[in-house]
């Protein structure tokens, strides 16, 4: 059994990668606990796919080091390839072959006998609702079916570590849910899953821990609740009269943390507030004393979308402006 560092299945330290004049990774660090689903979030071009390619031995880093399942991604690359699975953004299956034949070939490449490979292919096709299309050429499959086939191809031999690079991009809600179920089942049986995704709901629902990367660096990491807690709750007040916005802003500035955000089109004033620091009764009383009539007043928990925008863009639509302290807290 491989030796893992501090119970981590994946450890990357100071990874750098350049492609010509473009710097994809800038000293990136990340640590993924064994047996967890780890979400990797970031805007396009943040370095997510480059990181996955390095961890899966497809690309060498220019500097830094990384270990996966106790093996160095450069020095032990040949051995490591037998201990990982990878489903990338684009299907790796052959369009001209049937679904069953594709899986048998993947099994043979993983050194399974033809009999065992065929049995494993049949098992996966049945368990992932593809048995009815097993003997059809892949070019007749829908997008969701192709993505499911591509995913189960990486599971012919269940790996200790599985990399999923945006596996549900472009899928309909039903197909996305089926892949989510597969990811959950893998984690329950001990496989470590590193998942990159553009869907924040996907990361929120699946990931035990999340790292947000931007410009090739890790800017935040933690559980979804921990990340949301860094920006606190949000107090929203929709005023009856646009002329009351300045007064409402003054009130919310006293109640909250930081400068209120104003959406004049919606007549909404919003501010971040610490947990349990403000109640709706307190806010309503303060607005009433200032002569402000609120059509709507609510305390809202932050979403992962707001965390993502704060960390990678400096603001979140419909929320207060980011505080410079946010990045320092995580």
TrEMBL record:
One of its GO terms (biological process) is doxorubicin transport. GO terms for molecular function: ATP binding; ATP hydrolysis activity. It comes from the Bacteria. InterPro entries: AAA+_ATPase, ABC_transporter-like_ATP-bd, ABC_transporter-like_CS, ABC_transporter_ATP-binding, DrrA, P-loop_NTPase. Keywords: Antibiotic resistance, ATP-binding, Cell membrane, Membrane, Nucleotide-binding, Translocase, Transport. Belongs to the ABC transporter superfamily. Drug exporter-1 (DrugE1) (TC 3.A.1.105) family. This is Daunorubicin/doxorubicin resistance ABC transporter ATP-binding protein DrrA. It comes from Spongiactinospora rosea.
